[in-house]
């Protein structure tokens, strides 16, 4: 039988495990991000809009420092995807893509 004490204890365990994976949000140069566990960052930024020079540098730094950048809920054209990824270095473009 579930008692209020068991429910509270279960909530405590789930909440504390969840806190380890959901890090605090940071914001710098127009980019908001949080670290992911065990590696990577999640961005909260509209990549369809042009990035300032400072935001571009921050994007590159986040990738270099964390090895993985996830930017959910984006609606980018292929040309814009190429522009953003080109910040990280040269990309291969094959005919028909």
The total strand number stands at 4
Secondary structure: helix percent: 40-55%
- The neighbouring-strand order within the major sheet is 1-2-3-4
Strand content: 15-25%
How many angstroms does the end-to-end distance come to? Answer: 59 Å
Any idea what the radius of gyration is? 19 Å
| Overall 3D form | globular
**Tally of DSSP helical segments:** 3
Round the mean pLDDT to the nearest integer and report it. 82
Characterize the main sheet: 4 strands, mixed
- Sheet/helix structural class: alpha+beta
Which residue ranges are poorly predicted, with pLDDT under 50 across at least 5 consecutive positions? 1-18
Order of helices and strands: HEEEHEH
Brief write-up:
This protein is an alpha+beta fold. The chain is built from three helices and four strands. It has a four-stranded mixed β-sheet with strand order 1-2-3-4.
